Amino acid sequence: SATTEKVFQDYLAAKEELKPLDEKLKAARGDAAAIQLQMNNMKNDNLASERPIRTDMGKANVKRRELAKAAEALEPPKPQLQAVPPQPRDYSANIRSTYSSGNSNNAYDDAMRNWRRQADAVNRANDAATKKYQADLAAWRKARDDAKNQLPKVDQQIKDLDKKLEQSAADLTVKQAPFMEKYKAANEEAGGIMRKMSAVETRVQAIVDALKSAPETMRLKHGIAEWEGEFVALADLEKTYTATQAEIDRVRAQLKADAQQAGRAFPTNWRHPQQDRMDAMKALLDKAKAAAAAG
After folding, report:
1. 154 in the Ramachandran plot: left (φ > 0), alpha (ψ -120 to 50) or beta?
2. Alpha carbon distance 6, 210 (integer Å)
3. Per-residue pLDDT tens for 260-269?
4. What is the pLDDT of residues 14-34, one digit of tens each?
5. Which of 8, 51, 135, 281 has its CA 20 to 30 A from that of 266?
6. R_g of the chain, CA atoms, integer Å
7. Using an 8 Å Cβ cutoff, are 88 and 112 in contact?
């Protein structure tokens, strides 16, 4: 019917309408990708220029942690000094009288010698512990004072490095600004084209549904074939078949001639990779001719 033909013409027109939109979409996406690449290159250059600053920042932060640790370190504990053992008591005359004078003096002298040795050892240990404590205390005070003196300098260094990084980020933003505008414009253009394509594709789908609702024989009678998921004019399909089959036959003849010239047999079961597709197309064209004859 005239309606079927009109619907098919609308279908072909809509498909034609999609072709330039598809090209425009590819172009807009290509522009956006090229601009994105330029901005990425700028960002990479910026990161390379920031690397020494970030290295210095890392070192400064490590130093700051060390200084803070030194500034907050606890005072070394005071040493636990050993008590000197009590001196042996001198023997009283009464006790001495129980010993012979030689034994008594020898025992007391031995006790005093032992005590002096013990007392000397304790005093030496206490002196060493006291000296170590005083040295540790002096070292702790120096480290604490040095750390407290250096912290403001390191804090200032970190602040200065932070400013450099902020300035670097600001410079990149300024540098990228015109490209960002172009990128947004390209994306907006792509979005607009996609919306147009979506509207046309919705229309195409509605037409496809209308064409599919008609029986295949009716479509074939009106010269409309469904081939590989699309509707095509039978006349165009026949042209495609004739041209492709002729090329297949030419290739076959050439290969056969080459085989004969080389003195080898040409396989009788040789098939071109497109032959199955052409056979299916031929079957559809034959079905169309049968429908036209029956009509």
Report:
1. alpha
2. 11
3. 999 999 998 9
4. 999 999 999 999 999 999 999
5. 281
6. 51
7. yes
Q: In the numeric block, which tokens belong to residue 70?
A: 């030194």
Residue 189: closest CA among 25, 23, 17, 20: 25
DSSP percent split of the chain into helix, strand, coil, nearest 5 = 80, 5, 15
Angle at 248 between CA 244 and CA 253, to 5 degrees: 145
Sole residue written with tokens 């902020």: 166
Q: Tokens representing 182?
A: 């172009």
Report how far apart the first and last C-alpha atoms of the chain are (Å, whole number): 12
Kindly state the average pLDDT of the residues 49-59. Answer: 97
Q: Which two tokens stand for residue 98?
A: 């129980």
What phi and psi, each to the nearest 5 degrees, are found at residue 143? -60, -40
In terms of C-beta density within 10 A (0-12 exposed, 13-18 middle, 19 or more buried), how is residue 12 classed?
A: middle
Helix axis angle, 101-213 relative to 2-71, nearest 10°? 170
Token pair listed for 161: 């490095």
Whether the CA torsion 32, 34, 35, 41 is positive or negative: it is positive
Cα 143 from chain centre: 43
User: Which residue has 């390379």 as its token pair?
Assistant: 48
Spatial CB neighbours of 145, under 8 Å, sequence gap ≥ 6: none
